[in-house]
Amino acid sequence: MAEMTDVKLNLINRSEDANNSTVAILPRNADVTMDEVAVAWKVIKDLGKDDSHPFSYPLDSTIGAEDSFGNFSNQIPVVPGDAFVMIRDNTGDVLKKSSSSATDPSGVELRNKLPEGSISALTYKDGSVFERKTNVAPGKKAVFSSKPVLYIGALSQIREGQFVNSAILQTVNAELNLFGIASADNVWTGGGAGMDASPFQFTFQNVVNA
Fold first, then answer.
1. Which residue among 38, 44, 65, 86 is least enclosed by CB atoms within 10 Å?
2. Tens of pLDDT along 144-178?
């Protein structure tokens, strides 16, 4: 079997956008709340007409946690089925891999086993926050079950790492399904002014299968 590699993507602006819109790329997580739908993983700015922006979707992820004192743990590589625990030892709050597996073998869990204090659980791809679950109370867990499916859309006043709520997400509803893809161009079209304006679209072209 061929070794799995990162998915190579290339965003090309062939739209009629005249507002210098920002393009946001977000994970699609199967386990979300109404308040924390997604995180803006990548934000692409100032992409002129006919310009392109290459980026990669890494298959590898790491997981980390932020405790109630604003301390960030070390990041630990993850694979589906892993579970992690946030505990307090004689040095302070520490993130460790659990001796047991996640309930869902295709997901990843982070369990808060601190005596007090809620935590935030975070996953990272390419050095940036990919998913974030806040207010994980002691005795509770955060579950990450994202698949290689992304949302992409044009927004304004968005920054990397920012939460995107359900209302905004409705405007970032183009899906990039990366199953079985090694590389592809993602072409941005639509836009314009007045009666000639059309909705933005993001479509794959020049797809190379994995």
1. 44
2. 987 888 989 988 778 898 888 777 777 777 889 99
DSSP assignment string, 116-151: S--EEEEEEETTEEEEEEEEE-TT-EEEE---SEEE
Q: How far is CA 24 from CA 72, 181, 188, 199, in A?
A: 25, 20, 12, 16
Run of H or E residues at 65: strand 61-66
Give residue-wise pLDDT tens across range 184-201: 999 999 988 888 889 899
Could you say which architecture CATH assigns to the domain 7-58+148-209? Answer: Sandwich (2.60)
Q: Which amino acid is at 82?
A: D
DSSP 3-state of 35: coil
CATH 2.60.40 segments of the chain? 7-58+148-209
CA 60 from chain centre, in angstroms, equals 12
Q: What is the pTM of this model?
A: 0.85
Query: Residue 128 is encoded by which pair of tokens?
Result: 């940036």
